[in-house]
Structures are given as C-alpha cells and as structure tokens.
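Progress against Task 2.4 (sequence-to-structure conversion) is shown through the following example record, which the project officer requested during the mid-term review.
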Amino acid sequence: MSARAGGVSLPGRGAAGKSGGVLSRVTSSFSESPIVYKGKRVASDASFVAKKLLKSTGKAAWIAGTTFIVLVVPLIIVMDRDQQLSDLEMQQASLLGAPPAISGPQK
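Structure tokens generated for the chain above:
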C-alpha cells in the first residue's frame, strides 16, 4: 500500500508542491485577469496625461513668470519712484510754506 492512497497531499509536497501552492495560483490568476489589465492600462494612461499636463503647466508658468519680470516689475519700480518724488516735492513745499498741491482730478 502506498502512502498516497486515499490520503490528502500536504502543501509543498507531491503534485501541488510542483505547480505551486494555492496562493501562487490565485495570485497568478488574479494578476492575469482582464480587470487588472484594464486597471493597469487606465493607470498608465492617467500617468501619461498627468505628465503632459504638468509639462504644459510648467511651460505656461515659465512664460507668465518671465513676462511678469520683464514687463510688470519695471513698471512697479517706475511708479514707486514717481510716488517717492511726489512725496519729496510735497515735503519741500510744506517746509517752504507753500500750500500743498492737490493731487487728483482737476475740474
């Protein structure tokens, strides 16, 4: 009489041990399922779109930043300089006793 006659083979022994355990068979069948394949494909597509979006957003931010530095910052500097000059003229006029000039719209 053989040891296997009518008995149950233990995990890791006999025919079940050669083809892998239950866990490895379930894992391989799960990883090869169409749902997992579609999920991986969707994740890959989402990653591709995110990279493209990030790249184009970076380009737009670079264009906006350099435009701001080249056009707006010099304008702010000139406006600040004009304001300081106007304040200085008002101080000098008040020290000399002249009535302060009204800045604003004239009618």
